[in-house]
Amino acid sequence: MATVIQPHQLVGAPSVGLLSIGQSPRPDLTAQFRRLAPHVSFMEAGALHHLSEAALPPAQGAYPLVTRLRNGNRVVIDEAFLAPHLQTAVNETIKRGVKVVALLCAGSFDALHCDVPLLKPFALAQAALRTMGLTSIDVISPFAQQEEPIRRRWQAAGFQARVSTAHLVDDVERIADCVGTGSGRCVVLDYVG
What we know:
Rossmann fold, 9 strands, 30% helix, globular, alpha/beta, 23% strand, three-stranded parallel sheet, single chain, four-stranded parallel sheet
């Protein structure tokens, strides 16, 4: 009979880097990870951690993303601006010894790379949908400026995507309306926090 090793029996807790596109810490995003995996060591890093709010350019590029700063302020930043800062955050977590990196953003960040497993919500969602044979989806975007970039991104990945905007915390009725009127066989919340 095989021996089952429980997580609390591991010598030295495995470590996971949690990367936000804003500033760390983000307990609103990371508390669930800590609760679900109490024997894992989580290290947070933020792409904008070393930048002041005044240093952030207005989002004028092809893919605006929304995030929060350490002070709680919500900011909209373009994915192209974030990419090199996010890569720096990845590199810093790798130097700190993490064994896995999890991106806390649904953006693509195609050029993001590291020498340990990198979990990207967009790539994971695509794989899950394909595994289930789903190609027609209804996608919920957190704000209107993301609708068209999100539609293009899902279509480029081979999905028929109908995109609607709803705030994921305050707009539950709007989400229900999107679900009820859409043609997709699945609803995708294209947003992490």
